[in-house]
Each structure stands twice: as C-alpha cells, then as structure tokens.
Amino acid sequence: MNVTRLLFSVLGLLAFVLFVRLWVGAGSYPDIGRLEQQIEQQNKANDEQAEVKRLLQMDVVGLSKDDEAVEEHARSELGMVRDGETYYQVILRTDPEATAPVPQVKAAPHVE
C-alpha cells in the first residue's frame, strides 16, 4: 500500500510538471501563438520585399532596353542635365522644407 501511494504521488507529480510545461514552458500554447505571429509578420515582410524586387527587376529590364529610360533616371535621380540646358528649380512657398538653399547642380563636361 505504501509503494502504491508513492507510485501514484510520483506519477501525479510528473503529470503536473508536464501540464505546467504545456501551458508555460518552451513549446507551450502561448509560445506557439507568439511564434505564429512572428511567422505571419515575416511572411508580410517577405511579400513586401518580393514586390520591391519585382519592381526593381522591371526597372532593370526597362533600362536595358530603352535609352530614354536611362536618360530619365539620370535626370530625376541624379539631377543631370544636358550640355546647353539650364536647370531651374521651382520652390513653392507652401513647402516649408524647400525653403533651405539647395546647392547648384552643374552639368558634367562633354567628352568626345
């Protein structure tokens, strides 16, 4: 009888430890929920990066096929101008960030 009581006590304690681990420890239900949220966030970030990659690939294809696209990128992103052109920047009074002086962009010398 004493051995049976000891055996039930050990088994009860083991079951209690396993249930506590199921609800609190690593791999518990709350931990799994947190990991699923992290997976969902990472999947969203991956989808956003895939869209950026797709747009960049389209841009590369467009630049490799069209000289006008290359020129447009040079003008809009690098501020380049052709020889003989004059660059004008219009600053609207409604734009508070544009009131700071902007350095002048000079045309690169034409090399032949």
Automatic annotation (TrEMBL):
Subunit structure: Part of a complex composed of FtsB, FtsL and FtsQ.
Family: Belongs to the FtsB family.
GO CC annotation, single: plasma membrane
Location in the cell: Cell inner membrane
Keywords from the UniProt entry: Cell cycle, Cell division, Cell inner membrane, Cell membrane, Membrane, Transmembrane, Transmembrane helix
Record's function text: Essential cell division protein. May link together the upstream cell division proteins, which are predominantly cytoplasmic, with the downstream cell division proteins, which are predominantly periplasmic.
Organism: Thiothrix fructosivorans
GO biological process per UniProt: FtsZ-dependent cytokinesis
Membrane topology: Single-pass type II membrane protein
Side Cytoplasmic, residues: 1-6
Protein name as annotated: Cell division protein FtsB
Periplasmic side: 25-112
One Pfam family recorded for the sequence: DivIC
